[in-house]
Automatic annotation (TrEMBL):
It is found in: Cell inner membrane; Cell membrane. The keyword Membrane applies. Belongs to the FtsL family. It is a single-pass type II membrane protein. Keywords: Cell cycle, Cell division, Cell inner membrane, Cell membrane, Coiled coil, Membrane, Transmembrane, Transmembrane helix. This is Cell division protein FtsL. Essential cell division protein. May link together the upstream cell division proteins, which are predominantly cytoplasmic, with the downstream cell division proteins, which are predominantly periplasmic. GO terms for biological process: FtsZ-dependent cytokinesis. Residues 20-47 form a coiled coil. One of its GO terms (cellular component) is plasma membrane. Its main location: membrane. Part of a complex composed of FtsB, FtsL and FtsQ.
Length: 87
């Protein structure tokens, strides 16, 4: 009877130790993955900032006017060409 209790305790201690090792290993892996995701997040935030700046540059009134003049050969109408329409 005593041997059975002793063997049970030994098995429980060994199992507990193995579970602890497994848990620590999982924690290390998850921490490494978290750090990798943090680096990716930083890179994506930098890219997002660049894209917002690029959008602001391309969508600016001056840029649109410049493209209209250069690519579409558009120009501002003279005073005589402007007509105001009433609703």
């Amino acid at each position: 009877m005593r041997w059975l209790v002793l063997c049970t305790l030994i098995v429980a201690v060994v199992w507990s130790g193995l579970a602890l090792v497994e848990t620590k290993q999982q924690r290390r892996e998850l921490f490494a993955e978290k750090e990798l995701l943090r680096v990716q997040l930083d890179e994506l935030q930098i890219t997002w900032g660049k894209l917002q700046l690029e959008l602001a540059t391309f969508a600016g009134y001056g840029r649109i006017e410049e493209l209209a003049r250069e690519k579409l050969s558009m120009h501002m109408p003279s005073i005589e060409q402007i007509q105001v329409l009433e609703p």
